[in-house]
Structure formats: structure tokens, C-alpha cells
């Protein structure tokens, strides 16, 4: 080194050393005093300005470290970040300050908050070095003045402004629009978040002045994509990220404005209402585009191949859950930059093996081909060179795609998967075995091979080899053997579902210690046995436990309720458990049916305040219903059927879904204090209840099912039954009801099944029954679906998978499940059939059998076109079988036996193509039975027996022989249609009367002409009268003498 330069070198080195010491000193000094004082003034302002904070001093809950103390460094305060070099405050988070659940947010509150932004912006003036400000999730529902946000313009260093989730009302949007225009002076502002507010398309022009923006998020607003204002987006020449997901976009014209932003790298349009074909021609001009997300729209048709493949820099392509069809563009093989490719939930077709993206193997990390229309064989050999692959999903192909994971020559993957989902696939069809390449995968977090017909021993090595495994779903396969636990404490696994397999043996005692963080465990429908391991009681995070349909025995430890503090769903149904059922505080769904329990008890110091669903049916429990079951306002369903309960039904019960007390030992009157106004399903069959139907039941306006069969109810059906307008199933059979069937039943138009059999009803069948829908309108349905998302790679696109929260939601928050799967037993086709779920929705029936009904069958019954079962047997009905029955196109069972019906069987009934049961035995029917065609070719002579004047197959009596005995020749085509045995009642009575009159007058005329015969007849009548008189006199005298002696 030159000696002349050496002094300068040491001088510069010393200067740098002094600079480092200065910086370190500044770091040690902490935040600047001016900014510390400014923050303390800000805290005081928040307490004074926000009523909820002032009412409950909530600022101290949110900002406990913001204290005026000389040793308190504001850079260490929560919601604050300082620059480590300068000490200036650069990030401030004031999100979610205004919402306190203890405070009543009335109109006055929101009015007071109207000036909040203006005053807040004044307080922030001292924090001029801020580059990030978060004021989100504060729900300003008031009105803002023209001066408010624009005061933030003094924060010239601001780079990120977060204002999401404030629910700005539509009335203040014009004010805000002007505000955003004034913020154009913030030349450093790069990120603006306006998610989940109330903005519509008018907000777009006001943002055009923020030319420095690189990221703009407008998720969850009311944008529709129309209007000229969208053209002003072209001024945002530096914009790289545009997020418009979860809006109301339905006008694709805005895409023409977006393509003018040449700098755009990310475009997110998921969960909108965009329809038609996707205009790839315009998007092709976005040559810098790296991320394109179209998930959850209504796009359809084929993809424009050449324009689409012009996006050479595209890294993330998400077309999932649309209606795209056809084959995938072959040019996708030239897209070497792909990282994420998701085409799930569309209608893409073609050969599966030719649909993969071959050239992208070096960069692809995420592939999802689930739920499409691919066919053929897909071999995993194609993934041999995919070194970065982390997520592979190929679900729901309905066995139309055969997935081969092994290959003829074997292969060794270069990748380490984190997620593999091959649910509902035809997986390794030739060997039905689990993929062997998984033996060398050691970073798996999610494995879903459910519903794939896999066989062999249970793959315990999957758990042993993957210490980061979170989700294991192998349900509905044919694995056998025992479930062995890993040799280490597995802290990551939260969900395990191996239900519906052939596992046997006992659960290891230390399962609770090996899986301490398990939240969902489903081992149902296996062959497991033994006692319940006590270590399960120590699983603090367990929310769902399903061990139903196994062979477990012994008692259920009380600690399962006291130790598993998070347990919400417990299903131990159909095992051999005994002892006492314990109900804990946090449980929401408890299924203990089909065991040998003898009692039920509340865990000491517990409540049932959160209980939604309790099923203890089919046990051996006796005693009265515990009154503590009425101490919850959330109770949805209580099922206690098939036990030995007795006594009174507690008036405290308050169900809104199902109450099932059937087949117990209850008797006497139903309590008049029972108040169930929101009940939907009531089952009381198989008890000994007496009296009439309590009028309190008619107040249950939401009632869908009323089943009180096989009791001892008496009296008539009250006309107040018309109040049950939502009723769909009415079952009153097997009681002692009397009187007529009231016409008010016809007002229950929603009825699907009506059973009044085995009572003592009299009178005629109501003519108005045709007004009831009988299945034309199906019962209500429910649909809940959830999805968990977790980011796992580079921030391009969340890896979505069915994880813990989805399973838990399906277990205890699915409304259809909580309502219980309604099951109805209805006699049809000579057997007791149970209908439930979707089958029940399509079942309709009418049963008036075994009563004392008289009169003819109403012709209007033939108008109930949706009826599937009709039973009028064992009554005293007369008249003919209505020919209108031929219109009951869906009828499957018709029983008119044991009545006094006459006339012919209508030949048009042959048109009933669904008819499986037909019975008209023991009536007074005559004529030829319908031809043995279609369904009538399956009915035997037992269907017609007991009708003397019926003839023709399958009966032994031939109609042809009877016709040969008829001496009267046919005279015309009309007369030839008449049968030999037909007698017109009017002709018969007329001819008889005329013949009698002619005979009488002929005798009288003969006596009048011949006096001798007249005299002889007179003497004969006189002798006859005297003989009768003396016979009667002599008989009475002898009888009198006998009585005196």
C-alpha cells in the first residue's frame, strides 16, 4: 500500500468505527422521547374517544405495556415496531380496538365514532417516520367528515396502509373517494389493503392517483366490474399485485382495463360470479404475469390454447372449481416456470397420462387434478423427475382413472412430498396395496388414501417414518391387523381416521401419551375390543372421539369428561360398554346408544349448558328422566328410545330438533305443562300414554314428525291439528281414536306419510285428501361445508386440504347431523319398512286400514299422483274401485282387501308400472281380473281370493266356460262388451215390480169372474183364521195353568 494513502486509510477506518459505536449507542438508547410521548397521548386519546374503551378501560387490556415510566422503552411495547438502527417508530398496529363484547353498540356509539379518523390522524402527526399503519377491524359504521384520512398525508414515509374490515357504510364512500385522491401525495405508499369494507365500483377512480402502489387488495367488497371508472386503473403503472377475490364481479369488461397494467404479476379473481369463457386473449398481454387465480367462478368452455400459453412467466395457475372442459392445452408442457397447477373441480377430460405437465417437472411443487373427467391409466412413473414436488392431489375420480404407483420396473422418487391425497381412486387395482414409494417419504404432513379399496396389513410405518405427520386418513379400506403406536411421542399428528377397516385387537394403553396433541380420532367400524385405555382421559386437545361399531367393553372412565377438556363429540355407540354414562360440561354431541349402560349421571360440578345432541337409546337404563337435562337452551336432540324409563316427562325439557321417548314404560296423560314450540320431531310410540292428544302439542308450529303409535290414546282428532302446517309425517296407528276423520287433516298440505290404521275411526273417507302434497315437496335439506387452508410454500397459493377443522365441523356442527337422521317405520308391501335420510324424502303413503270406515272410495284419491303406498284394507267400504287409480303413476303398494267393494277391477291399473303389491281379496268383486301383463303378471291368486264372481288367470275359474253357457247372443258392439253376469239394478227393480203387479191383478180378476173359486177362497181364509185363534187361546190357557201350579 502507498505510504501517502495510508493515513487516509486509517482515518476512514476510525470514522467507520465511530459510526458503528454511534449506531450501537442509539440502539441502546431506545425509542425517541418525542415518539414515546406521542404514543402515550395516543393511548389517552383512545380511552377518551372510544366509548367502549372508556366504559371498561379496555385500552389497558389492549395496551398494557404502554406506560409512562422512565425505564419503559416504547420500542418494546406491543403493537409497535422500531427501526433497529435509527430508533424511529416505523410500524404501528391499532387493529381491533373498538370491539368489546361487553359493550352495547348502539346508534349513539357509531355517531360518536364519526369523527374518529379526523382526531386520530391529528395524533399521528408526531409519528412522521411511520412506514406501516394498521387500523383494520374496527367497524366504523358512522359517517366520516371530508377531513379525516387525508391528514395521513403528512406521513410521507408511509409505505403500507391497512384499513380492512371496517364495514364502511355506502353513504360515506363518496367522502372516502375524495380522501384517497388526497392521499396521492404519499409517493412512497406501495401497499393498500381495503378488504371487507362496503366499497363498490365507485372507489376505483379515486385510487388512480396512488401511482406508487405495487399491491392493492379489495377483497370482500361489492365490486361488480362495470362502469368507465375501471379504465383509470391503467394509471397504476407500478401495480404488481391486484386482489379482487370474494366480490360480486359478474361483468368481464373490467378485464380489458386490467390488461393495460403491464407491470401486473399477480391477479386474484377467485370466488366471484364471473361466467362464460375466460378471455385469455387480453390476459396474454400481461407478459409479466406470474400468478393467475380464477378459483370458484362460473367460467366454462375450452381454454384458448395459444393465447394462454403466451404467459411464459406464469408460476401459479389456479382454475379450480369452474366449468372448464375439453383437454388440457398441450402447450402447457412448454411452461417451464410452473410452481402451482390446480385444475380441480372442472370437467376436463381425455387420457389421464397425457394430461400431466411434463416439461415443468423441475419446478412444479403443487399439482391438483382432482374431480375431473379423466379416464385411463395414470402412472406415477411420470413423476420420476419431479424433484421439487411437495403436494400431489388426485381425488374423486370415481374409479374411472386407474392410478398405478409402482410401475413395471420400479422407480425411486426424487421428491419428498408434504401432502398426498388419492381419495376415492382406483389405486393399484391389480394388487390393491398401499403405494410402496411412501416408504421413502419422510416429510409427509397429510396422507389421504381413503375410499381406495386398499388391502393388507395396516401401514403402521407411515406414522413411524413421518415425524411431522398431521393428518392421516385411511378410512373405508380393507386394512387388517393391529394398530401399533410409534416408538416416540408424536407431537404433530392432530387427525387420524382409520374407520371402516378390519382392524382388530386392543388399543395400546399409552395411546394418550403417544398422541398428546390429537384432536380428531375415528376408529369406528372395526373389530377392536377390550377396555377403553385410561390414557385417553389425558388428551387435552381431543375434540372428536368416535369408537362406534366395535367390540369395546367395560365402563367408560369419568376422566374422559374431566380430563379431555376440549372433547365436544363422543361416539361410543354399538359396543358393549356398561355402567354409567357420564355427561360433562363441554360436550356438544354424545352418542352412547346400542350398549349395556344402566344409568346416566352428570359429572360433579358440571353443567349441560352446551349439549346439543344426546342419544342413549337401546340400553338398559331405568328410572325417571333426569331434570338436569332441561338446564340447557341449546338442546337440539334427545333420543332415549328402547330403555326402561318411566314416570312423568319433565316440563323443563326444551328441544328444538328431536325428542324420542319411544318404547319405554311411560304411561298416563302427557303433561299439559310440556312446552315445545320449536320441536321438529316427536316420537312417543310403544308406551302406554292415555287420554287425548294434548292441545299443547298443537302449539309446536315447527313440528315435522308426530309419531304416537301403539299407545292408548282415546277420543277424536281435534280440529286444532290444522295448526301443524309444517307437519310431514303423522303416525297415529294402534290407539283407540274414534269419530270421523276430520277434514282439517286436508289443510296439512306438507304431509308425506299419514298412518291412522288400527283405530276405531268411522264415517267416510274425506273427499279433500287430494289437496295434500304427499311427497310432491321434499323435506328440508341442509348443507354445511368447510375447508382449511394452510400456506406452505413461497406465498404463491395456499395448499388447501381437508384437515382437522373440516373433520370437526362435519362431526359436530353439521346441522343435518344434529337434527338426527330421521327414521320412520311405515307398513307397506306386507312388511314394516324403515325409511330415513334421502329415501324418506321420496316416500309417501296413506294408511287407513283396520278401522270402521264406510261409504265408497273417493274418486279424488286418484289425483294424488305422487302417492307410493295406499292401504284401505279391513274396513266396510262399498262401491267400485275408482278407475282414477290408474293415474297413480308412482304407486308401489295398493291394498283394498277385506271390504265390500263390488264391480270389476279396472283394467287400466295395468299401467301402474311400479306396482309391486296388489291385494283386493275378500270383497264382492266380479268379472275378469286384469290381464297378466307388466306388474300384474307377478301377482298370485292370493291377491284375488275371497271374490266368488272373479274369473280368469291366475284364478282357477275360467271366464270362457261361463260365456259358453250364456244363451243370449250379442246384438251390437256395445252389447258385446257387456258381461253375462252384469245386471243393471234399475232394470232388475223395475221388472220385479211390474211382474208383481201383473200377478196380483191377474189373481184378483180370476176370483172376480169365477164366483165358485171366490167362495172357496173365502171359506179357506175363514177356517184358517179360526184355527189360528183357537190354537193361540188354547196354548195361552195351558201356559197359565202351568204357571199357577
Automatic annotation (TrEMBL):
The keyword Chaperone does not apply. Its main location: membrane. It is found in: Cell membrane. The chain crosses the membrane at residues 994-1014. Residues 1-25 form the signal peptide. Residues 34-83 form the Leucine-rich repeat-containing N-terminal plant-type domain. GO terms for cellular component: plasma membrane. It comes from the Eukaryota. It is a single-pass type I membrane protein. Keywords: Cell membrane, Glycoprotein, Leucine-rich repeat, Membrane, Repeat, Signal, Transmembrane, Transmembrane helix. PROSITE patterns: LRR. Belongs to the RLP family. PANTHER family: RECEPTOR-LIKE PROTEIN 14, RECEPTOR-LIKE PROTEIN 8-RELATED. This is Receptor like protein 21-like.
